[in-house]
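Appendix B. Raw example, untouched.
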Amino acid sequence: MAERTVTIASASGLHARPAAIFSKAAGEQPATVTIEKAGGNAVQASSILMLMTLGAGHGDEVTLKAEGDGADESVAALAELLEKDLDAEE
């Protein structure tokens, strides 16, 4: 299992546009990826509805976990997204 903790850079957190971009990217990964805030439940990273339940805001730390083929690559790609301000992405 691959695992990485990252800080959310988007000004609006993991809501609206950033959540849509992130969930789409998660769905394209070869591995199954979950995301969780400390003390919270892990949710499917590819589900925009589940992402909204996290309540992850700007500056919050979240942990990505992946299992299966390409787990390390999937976590790295999604962590890189979270470390960008997705509100500013075109």
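End of appendix B.
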